[in-house]
Each structure stands twice: as structure tokens, then as C-alpha cells.
């Protein structure tokens, strides 16, 4: 075990600062160097030249379904340090509210449906404008310069706050585990990311996503077993008894009979509403999601996003429930890190429930596992954000307004250096938020106010030919103004002041986020009615965007839409709402079945993320291996291996993206 701090209010880090620096710096650089080597190997063996813009930004639009699904899961695993944020204040001046089993479910339901839905937008973009690199190119071609600038602002705000949210949560968790200075963690986390993204581009991001996500799921599955080898837990039946006893000790205001073991939770459903709105905004206005869709092969977009979205659901649902149940059940046990006190709101808001869960069941080893998970989850997602912002600066600023005649070499040079620029800027912005008193909980809850105004206008841009230029330009700005007004007005009306504490409370954030998400819908429709357009989708192809033309995509939009609606209906209506309305309290048998289903789903996700990409991309893996062996034999026999020209394997493997 580790030594506790002298103060009852502080938990001494279970790991040393040296361990923190080794993970953040050394392992980060090792991964970066490995990805640089893999990038060069792929160039030599299968001709994937990351000095070409189309390869750097879109992987020649050849990524297969397995790697796409893995990347989709990785985009959302940055939320791992935040899984137990259902332990959350319901209001600024009220006692701490624990939503219990409903919190992890709503967390998962807030992510999975929107990932599946994005397949509709992704395949529509691939079909209508197959040469695009960013969402903003689509906006500019359809609506012109003013709308382009508006959406550029919306996307950059989205990316900046998403990265700040990740860095604040990850840095707090790393500091709690190792004692490493939080600002050092904030600036060092992006170092390795910037390096391998600088060299390898989006393909390096896909490959790193795979390695990181597979590693994360191995550790999570280990925790899922280790939990029940802990004497204080022992079995699912005993875990149920522990959680039930916690509800008796500390009843939950707003939950049915004060129980943690119910979906009838006012705080839980409010969190669910906030979370799904905010996540739709984060995804639809996140250029990295569009880049990954553009990078996928035509046949990979739908299966990649659908399989990835459904597989992801198990991670927050299963691990959130397991971690929260252990924390709630053992907070009064001497093995818990904060014993004899409960966790403070500051600790909960900083995302420390999952680390404390791991320490409780596995001691220093658990802390090391969470440290590695946090590092890999955040750097994996950070890589996608960095390449996304780099693409905006390169294509939508430089190539559009700086140099319309930019060559492939010009664009790739801008892409390279903007990777480093954004990594540094995001770290500095996160540091500023930390020093003004903003933590992970605040950014996670208010995020949707800023990210949601573009949901409907952007969706209409891709799917509805009638939306007018004025509607597309004005409605997101009006929506953001409405959302901010409702958010700040609710904070003042409910608590009598506008402060970081009041604006981070649940109700103002819910009201502001819903207003920000929903209000652009009537704004867009009403403005469009004055002068509707009838945009010809074929006009998207009038402008040459790619340096290398790609194939067209068949129509599968209706199929995607049915999948998206079905996923939303299942996760948001048919499954949870009857349980909420019936005021059902979990019995021991039901709780066991609930957890067994989650654990099975988690292990299936492990196999999907870990082995599906290998099975799906085995042909290119064999091509690379054959090319390496051929090259080795050539050198061994004294043959001239050439000066970098394509090998026979390269010719065969060209276009067989992993």
C-alpha cells in the first residue's frame, strides 16, 4: 500500500513523480519513434508516402473497416478518466448527488447513438463530395466565404474546448497518481503526439489509435476480473449488497427511494440530456470525425462507424457502473484511498473516481494501469484533434485565402508546422483555464453551450438541399447567443450570481445546452422559408479539391439512417425510459444480470478493437512482411536494393489500406 498524507483532506500519490515523467515523456517518445518507423516502413513497402497531402491528411482514402472501427472507439475513450462524473453536484449549494447505476448508462447512451448517426453524414459526404478534406470545404462551396468563416470559428472553438477538456482531466488524474506538476503534465502530454502526427499524419493517428485502444481495453478487462478477486468485493452479489448499504447510509436526493440501484434518477436523466446534446455537437462540429470518414475507404465508413459506435457503449456503461459501485460500496472501508472521509466534490469533478477505484482493487499496480490508460486515451484523441485543426489551417485558411495556387508541398509544409502550433496553443489555453479555477467538471458540463449551435445547420448542409445561405450562416450564431443567454441567465436566476461555480452547475448547463442545440432548428427553417434554395449536389464536384482523385461512393444513406434511428430508439427510449417511468429498483438478480451483460459486451469490444483490424487488414500486413523479407534477401545477396523506387509488392499493395 502507499503512505497516506498527514492531512485527512489529502491523498498522497501512490506513484512517484519519476513514474509520471517516464509514462508521459519516455513512453510518449517511444510510441512516437515507433510510429515514425512504421510510417517509413509503409512508404518503403507499400508506397504510402506521407510527404503527399492526400496521404498525410486522408490516408489516400483507403482505411479499412476494422481500423476505422478501432479509431471510432478511440475518439471517445478520452472520456475514460471522466466515467464516474455521475458523482456530481446537482446544484451549487446542495449536497453531493450520486446518480448511481443511471449515470454510466446515460454516459454511454450519450455517445453511442451519435457515433452511429455520424455514418449518415460520413457516407453522404463520401458520395456527394468525395475529394473533400474537411467539413469546412463543403460549407464554403455551398454557401460562400461568410458562412465558411462562421463555421471555421465554430469548428475551432469545438476543437479547442474538446482538447482543453481532455488535458484538464488527464493532467488532474496524472497529478493525483504521481504528484507530477499539473502544468508539466499539460504541456508534456502533446509532445509525442505532435511528433508522430507531424511525420505520419492521419495514418499514424489511425495506427496509434489501434495500439492505444487495444491496450486500454486489455487493462480494463483486467480490472473487470481483478475487482472480484478483491476480498472486500468477492462477487457481484456482494457488490450489490455494498451498493445497497451505501444507499441506506447516504440516500440520494432525486432518486427513487434514495437508492443508487435505480434508473429513476432526476440527476441521471438531466445528465443524459446534457450529455447527448453536447456529444452530438462535439461529433458533428469536430473536423477529426469528418477527416476519419474521408480517410476510410468507401466500403468502410458505414461498418466502421456502426460497429465502433455499438462496441464503444460497453466501455462507459460497464466500467462506469463497476467503478462507481466499488467506490460507493467501499468509501467507508479502510482500503479506500480517502478513508475515513468520502470523496470531495473537487476530487469527483477532477475525474478521480476511476483512479481511486483502481487503487482500491489493485493498489500501486492499479494506479499504474490508470496512469497508462489516461495517457493513451488522451493522446490518442489529441492526435485526431491536432490533425483536424492542422487541416483547417492548411486547407481552409492557407489554401483558400493565403495561396489559392498552393502546391502539394506548400500544403503539407503548413500542415506540419500547424500540428506543433496547435499542440502548444491548446496546452497554454488549458493552463489558463486551470489558473482561473476551471476544472474538468466545469468544461464537461458547459461544453455543449458552445459546441451545439452547429448541429442542425451542419446536418442540413449535408442532407437538406433547401437550406438557404442566410439560414446556414445566421442560425448557428443565433443559436449560440440563445444558448449562452439561457445558460448565464439560468445561473443568475437559480443562484443569484454568475460565477464559475454557478455556471458549472447541472441545471444552467442543461438549459443552456438544450437551448443551444435546439434553437437553430426553428431559426434555420424559418429563415429558409423566406428564400429557400434548391442546391444541386452535383455542384460539389465542380471544384477540384484533392491532389489525387478518388472513386465515387454508392448510395447507402437510407440504410445508415435506419441504423442511427434504431440505435437511438434502443439506447434512449426502449431500454431506459420504461425503467425510469416504472420507478424500478434493481434486485440482486437483476443487478447481477445487468453487470454480466456489461462485462460480456466489454470483452466483445476487446476482440472487436484488438483483432478485427488485424483480420480485416491481414493482406496489407502480409504485403509489408513479404516486402521486408524480399528487401532483406536482396541486401544479403549483394543486390542493389534501389534508391527508394517502388517494389513489386508496393505495386500490388497500392490501395489496399489497412
Automatic annotation (TrEMBL):
Membrane topology reported for the UniProt record: Multi-pass membrane protein
Protein's cellular compartments: Membrane
Molecular function GO labels: urea transmembrane transporter activity
Primary residence: membrane
Keyword Transmembrane (UniProt): yes
Spans annotated as Disordered: 634-658
UniProt superkingdom: Eukaryota
Gene Ontology CC: one annotated term: plasma membrane
Transmembrane segments: 20-42, 63-85, 105-125, 146-168, 180-199, 269-291, 303-330, 370-395, 416-436, 442-464, 476-495, 591-615
InterPro entries xrefs: DUR, Na/Glc_symporter_sf, Na/solute_symporter
UniProt-listed CDD domains: SLC5sbd_DUR3
Gene3D superfamilies: Sodium/glucose cotransporter
Entry keywords, A to Z: Membrane, Transmembrane, Transmembrane helix
Similarity comment: family membership: Belongs to the sodium:solute symporter (SSF) (TC 2.A.21) family.
Name of the protein in question: Sodium:solute symporter family-domain-containing protein
Organism: Clohesyomyces aquaticus
Lineage per the UniProt record: Eukaryota, Fungi, Dikarya, Ascomycota, Pezizomycotina
